[in-house]
Amino acid sequence: MNRYIACALLAGCTITATAAAKTMSEVLAASAPADWRTLDPANLVYMETTAGQVIMELAPQFAPKHVDNIRALIRENYFDGLSINRVQDNFVVQWGDPDAKKPIRTAQRKIADPEFTRPSQGLAFTVLPDPDTYAPQVGFVDGFPAARDPATSTAWLTHCYASVGVGRDNAADSGSGVELYVVIGHAPRQLDRNITTVGRVVQGVELLSALPRGDDAMGFYAKAEKRVAITSVRVAADLPESQRVVLEALRTDTPAFTALIEARRNRTDAWYKVPAGHIDLCSVPLPVRKKKV
Question: How many domains, the chain?
């Protein structure tokens, strides 16, 4: 059994750094091409804004109905000409139609199943060998930070930095993807299982994090002229190959990723004097890079 997983199943078990421990840079430098996966253009979304391009990876394995609806909204050009309307410090950036008047032609405005969780069966789950405050187990599924509860056989995506979610009102089924948000602050894990999480930003999250904070309640912009314009949103698969950004992510089901977790749990960089021996889910880096062609 993998020593990290075995340790995670034992009470009071702590994994300490070994003489062979590597830094994250060394782990990535030693990774093989098979340790990386090319991101599927059918699940990649390019959002062009006046602040720059943001690329998101969708997670249909967790919220298939919402992901399908988001694709439908994109393909009817729903988001084109809308805006980023909310930038709340240490929390989220949110966009959509500020007046809720833009018509929807082919997509749904309401989805009955909120998809807050899904059955855990069938998921290749890489367990993080440290306890978590919000879930019995946490780890990674297909490059996304996730959690699961063996007692209920459920799993869900977690709210880490750069996670993408679906805005909603009080009713659980009131979110359909017409409003989306990205986490730009400390992980608000209290949102887990209370809102639909549909993916993560893989490129350009720093552009969202650097936006001016909203000056009204909850970080909304008080004046329309302060909103950040969205010029277009497209599914990468709908664009000619010459217009796509080919990205690859480090697979989270490989020994290389296990080594990366250990590199971050017990830092061996010269600056660190006391290895922590632990790491929380949202502090594990999920490397993405442009693929060499």
Answer: 1
How many beta carbons lie within 10 A of that of residue 193, not counting itself? 20
Per-residue pLDDT of the chain (293 residues; tens, 9 = 90+): 444 444 444 333 343 444 467 899 999 999 999 999 999 999 999 999 999 999 999 999 999 999 999 999 999 999 999 999 999 999 999 999 999 999 999 999 899 999 999 999 999 999 999 999 999 999 999 999 999 999 999 999 999 999 999 999 999 999 999 999 999 999 999 999 999 999 999 999 999 999 999 999 999 999 999 999 999 999 999 999 999 999 999 999 999 999 999 999 999 889 999 999 999 999 999 999 999 87
Per the domain annotation, does 33 fall within a domain? no
Inside any domain, residue 105: yes
Q: Is residue 24, in this structure, part of any structural domain at all?
A: no
Whether 255 is in a domain gets the answer no
